[in-house]
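The pair is listed for reference:
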Amino acid sequence: MKISWRFALAALTLPNFALANDGIAAVGVGGIVFGKTDVIAMKKEVLNISHNLISVDYEFLNESASEVEETIVFPLPPYTAAQQGSETYYGQPDGFSIRVDGKPVAFTSRMVARSPDGTDITAQLKKLGLSNRQIAYTPEFSATSGAVPGFTPAQSKQLRQLNLLDEDTGAPTWQVEVNYVWKQKFPARQIIRVHHDYRPFVAAGPGESRMGEGFAQTYCTDQSYLKARARIENKENAYFDTRNVSYILKTGNTWKRGIEDFTLNIIKRRPEELVSLCFPGTFKKIDAHTYQVHLSNFHPTKNLEVHFGNIEGGQDENAGVMPVLPH
C-alpha cells in the first residue's frame, strides 16, 4: 500500500540529491557489478532523512562458520553534471565517512563520467585537463565561489567539438556516477555495526518550483498537498521552493533475506514543512519534527523519493543547521 503524507513548509531548499544503501558488489575493469550474499544478513537498518543530513545505521550478521570478506559499495545514482552547481558544497558529500563498530574505515571513491549515449568518457575528460571537481560539478558557479574553476577556452572548444557542452547554455551534457568502495571482513556468527553520517553533496541553487509531469505520481501528492502549497505560494513576498531526496533502497536486497528490520525516520526542519512520499506501511508521529515507519522482512521493490516543500521569503535563520536525529 502506498501512503502519502504532507505538512506545511519551512524555508530555503533546493535541487535534488541522491544517496543509497550499502550493497555487496564486485569491482573490475568493466566497473561495479552488484551481486548477492547467501551468508551475510542485514539484521537491522535505521535510516534518517532530512533536508540537510543523512544518517544510516546497519547491523550485519555473518551466519556462516567462517570469516567472510566482501567488497561493499555505497552508490550514488547517476546525475547530470549541469544540474549540480552549488554555492555551498563541492566534491564528495561533506563529511562522508564509514565507521564499523565505532571505528573509522578507509574507503576509495570511484567516479565515472558518461556521455549522453552512455559511453565512459572519464579518461577523455581528464586528458583535457579537467579535475574531478570540474567533471562532477558545473563550473559556472566559480564566478562567485571560486570553488570550481571554469573551463579554459581551449577546453570549451574541445568539449564542444566532442558534443559534450550544450550548444545554447554551454553546460556539460555528461552524467556522473560516484561510488564509495571498501573491503569489509565479517567475523563468523558475529554482529558488526556500520554507520554513515553526512550532509548532502548538493545544497544550493534554485529549487524545483514547478510540478512537472509525473511529480504527483513520484511523490504521492494529492489535493491536500496542493491546497497547502497554494496557500504558501499566495503569501506576499514568498515563493515555494523544494528539495527532493532520492535514496537507493533496492541494494538492500543484495543481503541475505533483504532487510530484516527496517526503520525510516523523516525529519522536518520545522513542524510546518511540507513533506510527501510514496512508501509502504503506516507512519507515526514521534515528535513535532519526526515521522517514523517500521517494516519487518523488507524487500524493497522501489527506491525512495522524498519531497520537502518550503517557503522562501528572506534569509533562513536555520540554514545550514543540522537537525538532531533520533537514536
